[in-house]
Amino acid sequence: IEPMGALQLGLPSPALIPQNGSLMVLDLKDCFFFFFFTIPLQLQDRDKFAFTVPVLNHAQPVKHYQWTVLPQGMINSPTLCQEFVARSLQSLRQEYPNYILYHYMDDLLLAAPSIAERDEFFLKVQEALRLYNLQIALEKIQKDFPISYLGTILEQHRIRPQKLQIRRDHLKTLNDFQKLLGDINWLCPVLGIPTYQLRHLFSTLEGDTALDSPRTLTPLALQELQFVEQRLNDGFLTYLHASQPISFIIFHTPYSPSGVIAQEKGLIEWVFLPNSFSKKLTTYMDKLAFLIQKGHHRILQLSGCEPHQIVTQLTTAQISRCLQFNENWQISLASYPGSFSNHYPSSKLIDFLRTNTMISHSPISDVPVKGPTIFTDANKNTAGYWTPESSKVLPHSFSSVQPAELWAIYLVLQDFPQLPINIVSDSRYAVLSCLQLPHVSLPLTLKTAIDKLFYQVQQLLLQRSELIFFTHIRAHSALPGPLSFGNATIDALLYPIEAAKQEHLLQHTNSKGLQKSHAITRKQAQNIVRSCSICAPFALPFTPPGVNMRGQQANQIWQMDVIYISSFGQQKCVHHTIDTCTHFQWATALHSEKADAVITHLLSCFAVMGLPIELKTDNAPAYQSAKLAHFLSQYHITHTFGIPYNSQGQAIIERANHTLHDYLEKIKKGEQERFMKPKDILNKTLLTLNFLNVWSKGNLSAAELHFQGKEEDKKILNTPIWYKDKEKGWIPASLIYLGRGYAFISVDNYRFWTPARLIK
Prior knowledge:
CATH architecture of the largest domain: 2-Layer Sandwich
Oligomer: single chain
Number of helices: 23
Number of domains: 7
Largest sheet: 5 strands, mixed
Strand order of the largest sheet: 12-11-10-13-14
């Protein structure tokens, strides 16, 4: 049998009964016993409720029975009982739509404008129930005030909670406190107990999860319990005034806002938020939005109409700002047609709650302040800050970098307590946490290290008398300006020169690559390379590059050759290809240099570098083979030939061959690489040449040039020039690329290389 679930998700609120109405509370006779033997089962369903009565020692045949009425104890029996009673009253609800008829389990509440109308309505209800064989317990009928109904006492003008005696001598275990707080929480909408008044009582539920684990009342929790007892005597609600609109009034109580559904002359129900939220840093403004959403939903649930207005202590400007910048406010008020007001109705209780405001003054500025700019950063071991005048770097014990970034800000707040400052951090987590901390209420028990850090930062922020500005910056953006410089400087402080030495020892990165990766000076990077015993023998004097036809964009012209590395054994034929524009190169170690091996190498290059427009090689037999020509034609690649060792032919790939050979020797001399496979050594070398080393003036690696492009090339592209044609003289053209003594131009959509002396 599938469970049907509850038909009523809550108790009916007696506060929605009209003022000055005549009430009567009824109790159905022997509900949970009489019902089960009153509701008949359909004939086709009775075989599903069959059972057998066993016989001792098999002395006689067993007897089979079938239930003809709803049996007690079935999973859906209480639900069916509610449905059965509801059907008996359905016709009355339609016949008397202006009368109140509340039905919850075996309790019925009737309300009518006058006593005579109420008594007449009672007779109709009694007759409707009798038709379904349901009886009213006449001895439990309540007509005169006070009337007991669903845990409340209905008086003539007020609704009070039933008297609840709190036995302190029984509060010894987790189970005892759980039951007590469950009862208190159930009465909160009637008593009007703000969430913050129960914080220390709620904290008794934390700790050991065993039900019999010991618990004690702290002095602060005892004070809260005394406040609950006072509200048991003083708390009350009123009945509905049908002629008055319903409003939702919000009080800015400490830690968490409180609300009440009210009319001009009465309180219908209190609304409170939970003691804790899933999001640890929930700001007070977010809590206000959540409370508005909850109160709005509850008013719709009770009355079926929107609240006439929402009353809060916020000014019009503050509400407008919340709607502009707070997503939770936008969601809560997306379809609200009413108005806002900050004029509270006259009431002693309301006046008391209004004096407890929690809109605290924030030391955080929305715009930069006049003061020093301090850069913070952290890594897995250290955290610190830097200013042009001072700096600090300290080790930390946090398990992740995010809290360490926040701890770096804590160091700044600690060292600059009474000075307007601007803090720049590359951690979005740390910046957002600091922006929210002045407005959140942290748990009483600081269990984790991050909770303690939140508390420490919050206290330093709240104690400040000077403004502070927080902003986030993207790390390693390589943008010009003082902000990127400051961020790079604190990075350099946190990552000492030893990290650069370790990378060079592993990958033999050149000095420009080390300077870029570790934000160290050029001299420091050069000293690391010069001090390397492996790299020193390969330091050759600089040879200026010759003029060689090269691509003006990535994958336009490739050059390819084969070098021989005898230490690779059977895979000594290393096929090598380089992009003549970006100098991104790829190599594969194969067993031969025939056409099949060349095709295998090219397919590997295509997968990594993309497809070229033109491929240039020497006149080796494999490169002139028909098989390679057919393969290149399939990909529409133009194949040209050059003269080996000629500056007008293969200079770029020949120089790259020497570089690749030198770096292979460097990598092989490492301690760990002596036992690596040839292909692994080759791949590690290509990683250094393509991704770690920096060759260009733009401080970009070959991979960045190949896959991102050069900004200076984009600036030159399609620049109008004049070109001196042999027959036509000076004619207009477009400059695509300008090199040393040569240029790549376009004339009437035809592109070609030309000496630089023929353009102006």
